[in-house]
Each structure stands twice: as structure tokens, then as C-alpha cells.
Design goal:
By secondary structure, the chain is of the alpha/beta class. The protein has one domain: Rossmann fold, CATH 3.40.50. It contains seven helices and ten strands. Strands 9-8-7-1-6-5-2-4-3-10 form a ten-stranded mixed β-sheet, sandwiched between helices. Helix 3 packs parallel to helix 4.
Length: 222
């Protein structure tokens, strides 16, 4: 396994995406329903709850073993079921190490608030991943129900966003984040599996997406 990513390509666009919504909004479903995440490809997950399809393990050695095998065929969908900031930092370093600018690698992280020390700045390895991963083909997908607790780096680097139902102060915060004519009341009125999607382009307005529940298939624990 390389210790650093290879084949930098500055032509890659920033496709990083945040999925934000209160408990039960359907953030994991928004990720599962995202058509830009391939069924087969280079996909690494931080997923302790088994919300996504893929091989899941809590063992670092097993994760690396499975990843090395997947790299040989350039196809893998592997989830590390960690819980601490230190484990998340390790996972970020692994994602960083296998990036290859000749391919897209999708990194999916559930509940970012649990792995952020503060709302000011992302931890070192995650900051490197977010700030420099794009040119090596990284597409980051991060979900959280507590946007006020996640590091500002995620907001700065993730141009695309899915915003689900929030109420109170977080609804107002998300209305400001969308920077459009969508109000806090609009966000508070959303139903489960409804999201405002912003593609990050200044010429586009957020669109309302109504999703259907999809059961994650192929969740395997090792």
C-alpha cells in the first residue's frame, strides 16, 4: 500500500458533499440514493451502524487485508466500524494512502459530529484528506445530525449539500448555509426523506428531492 496518493490530476472537480438533517431525516438514505456513487467502484466507508452495503469490520488489520485485496482489482466497498476520533484519523490516513488520481475514490463518513474535536478545524488527517484529496480523485460524503458540532473545514470543502428537516436554531443555520431564498420555515416543514439539494454552482438554486426508502443490501460483518 502506498503511503501517499499517486497520479495527481488537477482536472478533478470538487464533488465533496454534506448530508445534514435532524435525527430520522434520512441522511443515510440520501447517500444510498445518490446516483453519483457507483454500485461498483472504489468505495471506503466509516460506518459503525451498518447503514451501508459493504464488508464491515472493527479490526484494522482485517480492514487493511481486505483493502489490499480490493486494490488488486481496483474495486472495493469496505466499511470500518470505528467509534473514536483516533480511529477516524487512522481511517482518514488509510483513505489518503490509497488515492489514485486516475480514478475516483468515494469516502463515506457517517455522523461527523462524533469525530470532530471542535467546530473550528478538522483533525489533522481529515483536514489533509478534505483539503488535498480532490486532485487525487477523492469524492467525500459526510453526514451529520448536529451541524453546529462539525468542523468548519467540512463546510468549507464540501460544495454540494443535501439539507433535510431541522427545527429551531439549526433550521435557521441551514437556511443561511444554503444562501438562497429557502427559509428556516421551509426547512422545518420538510418531511422524512425530503431534502433540498444544492449542487454548489452559483447559477443553480437548491432543488427539492423526495426520496424513497432503499434497504441497504449486502451488509457483511467480519
Amino acid at each position: 500500500m502506498n503511503l501517499r496518493p499517486i497520479n495527481p490530476n488537477t482536472q478533478h472537480k470538487n464533488e465533496h458533499c454534506l448530508y445534514l438533517g435532524g435525527s430520522g431525516a434520512g441522511k443515510s438514505q440520501a447517500i444510498i440514493s445518490n446516483p453519483e456513487i457507483p454500485k461498483k467502484g472504489r468505495i471506503l466507508l466509516w460506518d459503525a451502524s451498518g447503514d451501508h452495503a459493504g464488508i464491515h469490520t472493527e479490526d484494522k488489520r482485517e480492514y487493511l487485508k481486505l483493502l489490499k485485496a480490493g486494490l488488486k482489482r481496483n474495486h472495493f466497498r469496505l466499511a470500518f466500524a470505528g467509534s473514536t476520533i483516533e480511529e477516524y484519523e487512522w481511517w482518514c490516513s488509510v483513505v489518503w494512502a490509497v488515492l489514485d488520481g486516475n480514478y475516483k475514490t468515494h469516502a463515506i463518513a457517517e455522523e461527523l459530529s462524533q469525530v470532530c474535536k471542535s467546530a473550528a478545524k478538522a483533525s489533522p488527517n481529515s483536514a489533509v484528506l478534505l483539503n488535498q484529496g480532490r486532485k487525487f480523485g477523492l469524492v467525500f460524503h459526510g453526514a451529520s445530525q448536529k451541524p453546529q458540532e462539525i468542523a468548519k473545514t467540512y463546510f468549507d470543502q464540501c460544495e454540494r449539500k443535501y439539507i433535510g428537516v431541522f427545527r429551531g436554531r439549526n433550521a435557521a443555520l441551514m437556511a443561511d448555509y444554503l444562501a438562497s431564498d429557502i427559509t428556516a420555515q421551509d426547512i422545518a416543514s420538510l418531511k422524512e426523506l425530503q431534502f433540498y439539494y444544492d449542487d454548489g454552482r452559483a447559477t443553480s438554486k437548491p432543488v427539492l428531492k423526495k426520496l424513497k426508502y432503499k434497504k441497504p443490501k449486502g451488509v457483511i460483518w467480519k
